[in-house]
Amino acid sequence: MENFEISKELNLPQDPIISFGPEDLRGVVAPHNDALVVTVIVVNYDVSRIFVDSGSSVNILFKGTLDQMKIEGCELELISTPLYGFIGHAIRPMGRIDLPVSMRSDPKRITKMVSFTVVDTHSSFNEILGRSAMKDFKVISSTYHQKLKFPIGREVWVLHGNKMVAHRCYDRMVREEGKRARMEVNIIRSGRSLLSVVEEEIQVLEEEESQEEV
To answer: Which long-range contacts (CB under 8 A, 24 or more apart) does 135-143 make?
Structure first.
């Protein structure tokens, strides 16, 4: 029998400490309620309008963005699980695809394979980075400071959010929601007018039938 010593010490990663302080607010107009929107490299494309959402359990890639990339041999892995709470109701994904994503803070970058759920719907964003991608990159995000911080080796690198792009995305989203709301109102109004026409025709038929009986 051989005796083996079992170490009780945990093999914790030796990552640098990541923190946020007053100096991280330089250039940020506070207080604010802006989303954290960044630009990262997907495959070999600089993709802007990427919403960092720590509340999302999946990473979202919109079909329009995937089409613009024109990736050769792009095949989606079919999935059947619908997404809930994404745009207010259940949506059926087109599939899943793994793509290389690079976070860059010149002159260095870090690249990971990220699994995206592809959906065919309109959005003011190109992608949504959720918890799984943030975990893989060991990202610490601060919406208040409009920054992502992540380790590269023994150093901490920073990816800045773009408040101007975040404002444009929000304005576009509000306009799209307004259009949808007006369309729903028009449909309801059309339905009511059609119902009133049908009721009038029924009333006319009933009057004609009563006259014939007399």
So the answer is: 136/112, 137/103, 137/110, 137/112, 138/15, 139/103, 140/18, 141/36, 141/52, 141/54, 142/20, 142/24, 142/36, 143/34, 143/35, 143/36, 143/52
- Domains of the chain are 22-170 (2.40.70.10)
**pTM recorded for the entire structure:** 0.73
Q: What is the pLDDT along the chain (214 residues), one digit of tens a residue?
A: 566 555 555 666 688 999 999 999 998 988 888 999 999 999 989 999 999 998 898 999 999 999 999 887 778 998 878 887 655 567 889 999 999 999 986 677 899 999 999 999 888 899 999 999 999 999 999 999 999 999 988 899 999 999 899 988 888 877 776 665 565 555 555 554 434 434 444 454 445 444 444 3
